[in-house]
Design goal:
CATH superfamily of the largest domain: Ribosomal protein L10, N-terminal RNA-binding domain
Number of strands: 5
Mean pLDDT: 86
Low-confidence stretches: none
Structural class: alpha+beta
Order of helices and strands: HEHEHEHEEHH
Shape: elongated
Strand content: 15-25%
Radius of gyration: 27 Å
């Protein structure tokens, strides 16, 4: 790889770091291409991507970004996963992949909008509900209040109607 190609790679990585909500550094030891493609596909669905580059290029790219504090984890066989929209989806995909392929994949560290996370922190993040689920819960809570209010208002005339019906049936029996 000549100097121009390296500069292009560093610029692309720097752009990824600048847009990223979450960056995860993992260790890749002997994963098959099919397994790596499965990870790439699952991350793409979560608006995230996997990037593999030399550690020296990654160190150059990470400089002057919010994820500069992750540079000490760049050693050995390194794989970088970067998520752009929300951090929970990629965290779920990566933790599930790490559990499935324990021998060939290990999460070293992560950064969430500039703050460093340990592997345990990333696993805790992966257990949180995703954005869609949280929005659904919020919508359910917001719609429950007016629905319950309508039921309460409806209970008074309904109880009155039950009382009238009971009186009517009682008079018909007499």
């Amino acid at each position: 790889m000549d100097r121009n190609q390296k500069n292009e790679v560093v610029d692309g990585l720097k752009e990824s770091f600048s847009k990223a909500k979450i960056a995860v550094i993992a260790e890749n030891r002997g994963l098959k291409v099919s397994e790596l493609e499965k990870l790439r596909k699952n991350l793409r669905e979560q608006d995230a991507q996997v990037q593999i580059a030399k550690n020296t290029l990654l160190r150059l790219a990470i400089k002057d970004t919010p994820y500069e504090n992750l540079s000490d984890a760049l050693s050995g066989t390194t794989m970088l996963a970067v998520g752009f929209k929300e951090p929970v989806g990629p965290a779920k995909v990566l933790s599930a992949f790490a559990k499935e392929f324990e021998a060939g994949f290990a999460i070293r560290t992560a950064g969430l909008e500039g703050k460093r996370l340990s592997e345990a922190d990333l696993l805790a993040l992966s257990r949180l509900p995703g954005r869609e689920q949280l929005l659904g819960k919020l919508l359910g809570t917001m719609s429950a209040v007016p629905s319950n209010f309508v039921r309460v208002l409806n209970a008074v005339p309904q109880t009155f109607l039950y009382a009238l019906t009971a009186i009517k049936e009682q008079k018909e029996k007499q």
